[in-house]
Design a protein that fits this description.
The chain is of the alpha/beta class. The protein has helices at about 15-25, 30-45, 85-95, 115-125, 145-160, 175-185, 225-230; strands at about 5-10, 50-60, 65-70, 75-80, 100-115, 140-145, 165-170, 190-195, 210. It has a seven-stranded mixed beta sheet with strand order 6-5-2-1-7-8-9, sandwiched between helices. It has a two-stranded antiparallel sheet with strand order 3-4. A hairpin with a 6-residue loop joins strand 3 and strand 4. The radius of gyration is 21 Å and the shape is elongated.
Length: about 230
């Protein structure tokens, strides 16, 4: 009997949740439990008969727990009262209950309020003045910290300790390339699942395969397009 391919699945959570509406949602809201169910369902499609699932590692940041005030309207925003905060925490709780799923949580660091890019461009071009900026033209800037580092460290650890034979990374970020190159040098079969997102052609040099198990998004034709009118 041939040896099973020991496989670890690593998921960039921010990327997964961003792509999820495009590949699965189909226009309706999904509960945290449904999203967790679909994550398990489609990631497990990578585990074929010749594979053994080592673990699913999910990387994300804890939602921001902070009160801020919109600089234009002066309205108070309490992030831990928002639907996004509740969804993210409930989703994490769902994942904690799933077999062979481990959370790797970084932090979400806040910076300050920013003007939306298109409004900033209009402002710099003199098309509008600062008085034309309203409360919807600004957003509170946040960025993940330690998430990419945790992914890179885990890839290195899995490879150097020969814990697994194959790593499947669900992401669309090129920051993983150095870790992927190191893992491949250690003999790891490195597969990228970008959930049908376009990737830089140069990334093919640093992976062993590209394969998405999620449903392929359907591109709807514009009924008002010139081609449709011509027919």
């Amino acid at each position: 009997m041939s040896k099973l391919i020991n496989t670890a699945i690593l998921i960039d959570g921010g990327f997964f949740l961003k792509r999820y509406p495009r590949v699965i949602k189909n226009g309706r809201e999904h509960s945290p439990e449904e999203v967790a169910d679909n994550l398990i369902k489609y990631t497990n499609k990578h585990i074929q008969k010749d594979c053994f699932l080592y673990r699913i590692l999910y990387y994300d940041s804890k939602p921001l727990d902070k009160r801020v005030h919109n600089p234009i309207s002066k309205k108070s925003i309490v992030f831990n009262k928002t639907p996004e905060f509740k969804f993210r925490n409930d989703f994490f709780e769902q994942l904690k209950k799933r077999r062979k799923v481990a959370l790797r949580l970084g932090i979400l660091k806040s910076t300050d309020w920013q003007i939306r890019p298109w409004k900033l461009k209009q402002l710099l071009n003199g098309e509008i003045t600062i008085k034309d900026i309203d409360e919807n033209d600004v957003f509170y800037q946040m960025s993940q910290k330690r998430v990419d580092m945790k992914i890179g460290l885990d890839i290195a650890s899995l490879a150097l300790k020969s814990t697994v034979d194959r790593i499947i990374l669900i992401s669309g970020d090129s920051d993983f390339v150095p870790a992927a190159k190191m893992a491949r040098r250690e003999g790891i079969d490195f597969i990228l699942d970008p959930m049908w997102n376009n990737i830089d052609p140069n990334l093919f040099e640093h992976i062993d395969g590209l394969y998405s198990t999620f449903p392929k998004p359907v591109i709807k034709k514009n009924p008002k397009s010139k081609e449709d009118k011509a027919t």
